[in-house]
Amino acid sequence: MDTLSRMRCFLKVVDAGGFSAAARELGRSKALVSKYVGDLEDELGARLLNRTTRQISMTEVGHAFYKEASDILTRIDDLKASVQNTHQAARGTLRISAPRSMGDDFINPAIMAFLVAEPEISIDLRLEDRFVDLVEEGFDAAIRVSEMTDSSLIARKLASFRATVCASPEAIARLGTPRHPQDLASLPCIIDNNYRYRNNWQFQVDGARLGVAVKGRVEVNSAQAARLAAREGLGFLRTPHIFVHRDVVAGRLVEVLESFHPEAQAVHVVYPHRRHLSGKVRAFVDFLSAWFADKRKRGEIC
Predict the structure, then answer these.
(1) Which residue, of 34, 184, 212, 299, has the fewest CB within 10 Å?
(2) Virtual torsion, Cα 40, 42, 45, 47, nearest 10 deg
(3) Quick one: how many helices (H) and strands (E) in the chain?
(4) Contact assessment for residue 255 and residue 164, using Cβ atoms and an 8 Å cutoff
(5) Using CA atoms, how far apart are residues 213 and 172, in angstroms rounded to an integer?
(6) Cα separation of 242 and 106, whole Å?
(7) Per-residue DSSP letters for 66-118?
(8) Cβ pair 288, 158 in contact under 8 A
């Protein structure tokens, strides 16, 4: 037993008025309680209690030790409670990393809604298309669209995103409807260079992956700019369906080559630790799960 536990045992014996009563309150044997107090006295090199067969009384040193020990343990208990309350409560600054390509149209609305729901949390959001080291760089959580291979991170799947190729009705009327992915090689395409394959678009043809080299007048690093370019008729765009869902529903963009897209990718929220998860991270993960679930229910994501 450590010193603090022995101190608590000593205080309990004094407060209960004897070893037997203290043992009952602690759920320990009288012999064990007596041993703990004896071990404390040995550690201190001083007798704290005078013992008789019927009663105990504190020595002069015991009186002084009782007062100081009470103050110390009270401060420790207060500190522990303060840390637990701060850790478990949804408050403080939350550092989050997310892909720039998802930021404007998808992540930002979710995070702003989260801030409205959790007024005691502040956000430090970094939008960048790289995998940050959460622990080394001090991030609380990250949003990632990929297969999870880092076993040191805890991941909760939020949704699956399928890709789509689309263009404006005007562009399709002018350029024609591609029937096979290879047709895109001779058509103007809008390239969002946030994505891994950039101008080498990936498709699934007869169970095999096919890469198609594409080109066009427009190359950007913004999903929003790419979508606007497609709406203006500047070419065909390959992008996650979530970014153009509203435009497709409204008829501003038309999907093509729908049967040739690879399997949907998963988006996860990841964080370093499951044990002693802070209140702010838990609130964020739970909120995102509910927010994405609502998007799925509305048919805006897979």
Answers:
(1) 299
(2) 70
(3) 11, 14
(4) yes
(5) 20
(6) 8
(7) HHHHHHHHHHHHHHHHHHHHHHHSS-EEEEEEE-HHHIIIIIHHHHHHHHHH-
(8) yes
Residue with tokens 């949003």: 143
Judge contact between 142 and 96, C-beta under 8 A: yes
- Set out the domains of the chain in order of their start, with CATH numbers: 3-88 (1.10.10.10), 92-161+265-297 (3.40.190.10), 163-260 (3.40.190.290)
The length of the chain in residues reads 302
Cα angle, residue 236 at apex, residues 233 and 241 outer, rounded to 5°: 110
Residue partners of 143: CB distance under 8 A and separation at least 6? 96, 97, 98, 99, 102, 107, 158, 267, 268, 269, 270, 288
> Residue 87 pLDDT > 60, yes or no?
no
Give me the amino acid identity at 208: A
- The model's pLDDT over 178-215, given as tens digits with 9 standing for 90+, comes to 999 999 999 999 998 877 778 899 999 988 989 999 99
pLDDT tens across 240-281, in order? 887 888 899 999 999 999 999 877 778 889 988 765 678 889
Beta strands 163-167; 236-240: pairing state: antiparallel
The Cα-based distances of 201 to 176, 190, 256 in angstroms read 19, 11, 14
Yes or no: say if 126 and 81 are a contact pair by the CB < 8 Å rule: no
The residues near 69 (Cβ < 8 Å, ≥ 6 apart) are 7, 10, 11
